[in-house]
Amino acid sequence: MRRHVLIGRMGPDDDLALPIASDEVATELQLIASNKRFDHGIGQALDELPTLGIFPTEIGLDVLVLAAHVHAADTRISRTTESQDTWTREIRLVVPVSDTVRWMESKTLLERMLNFLTGDRWNVGFRARPERFVEAIRKPPTIVTPPRFTEVSLFSGGLDSLIGAIDLLEAGRVPLLISHAGEGATSDAQKILYHGLKKCYQHVPFARMRVWMNFPAGLVAGSPGEDTTRGRSFLFIACGLFAGSGLNGAFPLKVPENGLIALNVPLDVLRLGSNSTRTTHPFYMSCWNDLTQLLNIPAIIENPYWSRTKGEMIADCANLPLLTGLIPDSMSCSSPTKARWQGQGIQHCGYCLPCLIRRAAIRRGIGTDATTYTLTDLNSRSLNTREAEGQQVRSFQVAIRRLEEKPAIASALIYKSGPLIDHTEEEKLALAAVYSRGLNEVASVLAHAQTRPSS
Fold this sequence. Notes:
alpha/beta; 5-stranded parallel beta sheet; 4-stranded parallel beta sheet; globular
């Protein structure tokens, strides 16, 4: 086990000496590619937004820079080699920001958010940007036309965010869609879906900002990297806040996600805690809203589908014919490249947790599923629970049977994935209900599936 500190640097002349503990492994994250241009996709976003009439704030840029540190640490510090229990890492960040006083007020909240999100132990510190980067944002022209966008909406390439975009466009809204891509399959899905939306809504001046952020292998010496990416939603939401900070006023930031995935109650004891992803959990979303208040960013971060299952989202989509045509191009799979081991291309596996929820939702929403799955038929043979193809199916079967035997247990299970201290009793009842309905959706595609351990 090694404790890590990731230190953000802004240019080769940024050599401020910083204290490092004797048992810490220090890694420097160079944020500047050349001269004053930001690296890791940040500079591209800074160049792109003014072409859309958007000039983000310095605090907005700070949010994205902080997220770059989180994303670099999360994806380049291995859980297997760098932690005592093959999961929990100890990570300290030193982030250059525009306003250290304001950011230090958020330190406790930030660490609580990150600990909850990734299951690690985070220590977040701040220092002032070097003098030549005190003002890093391009100044807007003297006469500024107000941005045309009515809100910001995350656009991941998945089915839920596609529905979110369609519903906004059908409602006459003009969203700025935010995409983050770290690998090709996700990026391709985003591009195809965006072009599909543009073709349908040619006269609506919506647009998309994409941040491609990845970090080189070997960034952290001695660590092979990490692929669990529990912290990716921190970067995704940060991208939205960065862009939204330039909208000249209060703005909603939509994070479209079905209620079953957002709540993400562990299906069995093996998925307790951070082993069950918390990327849009209600508690985590509430923490983001608390953070925007501390930073004085006028955003309301919300998941408009928190009380609906994925199947209900599909069935209620405001333009179902368009959605039906685009569904095969959306990407839900947690690991779409694993089909390569079987000599196939990038596609949905059909048996991971999000794939199973997707299959059930499409059956509930439109009946016919045109998605290509590596495992085409869940019922054609017994699935091995010692292999990936049977593990999530079996976990769902256990959870479904538990709920069938004791339906009232849903009201207790919703607390398994995290606290709900900011929610009313009525909202908690709605969360229990969406959990029950979501499991019932999945039960419809697993009714005849057979699982067993085999050698």
